[in-house]
Amino acid sequence: MTVETPxxxxxxxxxxxxxAADAARKAGAQVVLLDAAGDAGGQYWRHLPAQRPAAxxxxxxxxxxxxxxxxxxxxxxxAQVWLAERHDDRPPTLHVLVGPADxxxxxxxxxxxxxxxxxxxxxxxTLPFPGWDLPGxxxxxxxxxxxxxxxxxxxxxxxxxxxxxxxLPVASSLxxxxxxxVAVLEANGWPRLAKAWSRRPAELLATRHKAGELAGYLRDLxxxxxxxxxxxxxxAAHGTDRVTSVTVARLDDRWAPxxxxxxxVAVDAVCVSHGFVPRVELAVSAGCGLDAYxxxxxDHDGRTTVPGVYAAGEITGxxxxxxxxxxxxxxxxxAAxxxxSEVQRRQRTENQRFATRLEAAHGIxxxxxxxxxxxxxxxxxxxxxxxxxxAGAEATGSRGLRSLKLxxxxxxxxxxxxxxxRTVEELLHRHTGGLLDPGRTESRPLAAFVRLGExxxxxxxxxx
Amino acid sequence: MTTxxxxxxxxxxxxVRPRPAASITLVVDGVPVPGVDGQTVAGxxxxxxxxxxxxxxxxxxxxxxxGIGVCHDCLxxxxxxxxxxxxxxxxxxxxxxxxxxxx
Lengths: 464, 103
Ligand SMILES: Cc1cc2nc3c(=O)[nH]c(=O)nc-3n(C[C@H](O)[C@H](O)[C@H](O)COP(=O)(O)OP(=O)(O)OC[C@H]3O[C@@H](n4cnc5c(N)ncnc54)[C@H](O)[C@@H]3O)c2cc1C
Ligand code: FES
Fold this sequence. Notes:
The structure holds 2 protein chains of 2 kinds. Chain A is globular. In chain A, about 35% of the residues lie in helices and about 20% in strands. Chain A is α/β, with parallel strands linked by helices. Chain A has 3 domains: about 5-125 and about 275-340, 3-Layer(bba) Sandwich (FAD/NAD(P)-binding domain); about 125-275, FAD/NAD(P)-binding domain, CATH 3.50.50; about 370-440, Orthogonal Bundle (Arc Repressor Mutant, subunit A). Chain A has helices at about 15-25, 65-70, 140-150, 165-175, 190-200, 200-205, 210-225, 280-285, 320-335, 340-360, 385-395, 400-410, 420-430, 450-460, and strands at about 5, 10, 30-35, 80-85, 95-100, 105-110, 115-120, 120-125, 135-140, 150-155, 155-160, 180-185, 230, 230-240, 245-250, 265, 270-275, 275-280, 310, 375-380, 385. By secondary structure, chain B is mainly beta. Chain B is about 5% helix and about 30% strand. Chain B has one helix spanning about 40-45, and strands spanning about 5-10, 25-30, 30-35, 55, 60, 75-80, 80-85, 95-100. The relative contact order of chain B is 0.22. The chains are: A alpha/beta, B mainly beta. At the A-B interface, β9, α3 and β10 of A face β1, α1, β5 and β7 of B. β10 of chain A pairs antiparallel with β1 (about 5-10) of chain B, so a sheet runs across the interface. FE2/S2 (inorganic) cluster binds near residues 66, 71 and 87 of chain B. FE2/S2 (inorganic) cluster (FES) binds near residues 65, 66, 67, 69 and 72 of chain B. Chain B: This is (2Fe-2S)-binding protein. Chain B: Keywords: Oxidoreductase.
């Protein structure tokens, strides 16, 4: 089997990976940039496929000119990295399948790069609530992806709820895709939001591009008279085979629902997001160290704890696209053997301050478990409820996350705990009075679902 | 036209001003379903107003949840191959989609 050995391999063609590959190329490196998706852009610049051109697509986007400049480079698309094979003294060997998603005849490619930049981004964290598995309940990111890349609105009367500034672009995209938005609900109250966002205002000037973007979304809400309610959450969804209404309640500052404040709202779709989780499985396989939030630890050049492996974008912490771009430039230059200028480094630091505020203003608070019922599903794949988790912990008396997952099946389904893993871990932590092996949720030997038949067929053709 | 559930935006009402695109047809459980070239399988199904296409072991209906390939709620069988994420697989004209045999 031929092993390709580029100077720099960049995994992920979102804002961070695009910027990293571009910077590394400009520094003279021979670069391969790849992405599992059918197109470059990542989550932020998810867009219509080439087969569906549109005259004014930029109205769905920010920084579109930056994207059109970056997307000109060569990108290997439909390329799923499924395994990072670790070495002690150099970057891992990456195993890649290229072809239609989940297909059976994909082409197998192997890369042993001199330097590796991981820019795999993040996925959403959605907290469970009664009825959250009813059809018509979506992650906010799903609504965003369907609006931007398919021009499909998830419903006609849509409620957007959860925590964080990301709820705002989702509402704007829904409006531009023909949906009615009932309201946007933010779990955090005004005191917390104001404290985090109004402190040291001069600091925010450096990230005024981001502030301008957010102001635009708020104008959209005002123009359509859509209420933005703080300290409020969807605490249940109702319906038989699809959502027809939700219960909305006020929250206290720990996110516990306040009794007597519940009211029912008719909807045909709900879009929920409580934050993001860095997508670290390749980094973990490569041996990179993680911080307390489960993000990859990097130094000021984007170096991880493994020699020759760099990381940029939301895999290193949740901070938005501008930070991802700034980190990409710095990491790409370092991976190519160069180093960033003072200005480039400053852009990274300034945008990191925005990320710190994001967590201070919108991070998940523990009172949310107050809206769980015993029969609320926690693990969607294996259909394990909150009550099953408590009973499992009580019955076995175990304080081991691994053994409790095995006995309850929570987090062991086909999504490998990507949707419920952190929630399962938090709930078990409380039921057991403290887990003995916390933080194992992010460790997955395979970065993607692969068919054994596909690998066997590839091996027959070319022995390993 | 139904007034609830998912819906594709008609091109003449779309503010991004789409240019003409080729149409495709999928055969979903034996029934032809029209779509636009470049859409995912999930996009075609939802554009046709469909919200779910799978049931769990406990009989709960499922369709798209995460929309980005993470949750595996949206699995379908494409041209006889099971366990394909409908939100990630680009639809090809004439693809046969079966929603019945998914676990
Ligand atoms: C669904 C969703 C929608 C979002 N929409 C917005 C928005 O509209 N506005 C906003 O401000 N923020 C949005 N965000 C937040 C967003 O994560 C960041 O702002 C920005 O996209 C981060 O850039 P990134 O380059 O770090 O990662 P991403 O943009 O997430 O890019 C990571 C890329 O890595 C690829 N990848 C991951 N693993 C592998 C693998 N194993 N093999 C091959 N490729 C892989 C992915 O396909 C992806 O394209 C969204 C997040 C999500 C999850
Ligand atoms: S909707 Fe989650 S994987 Fe397709």
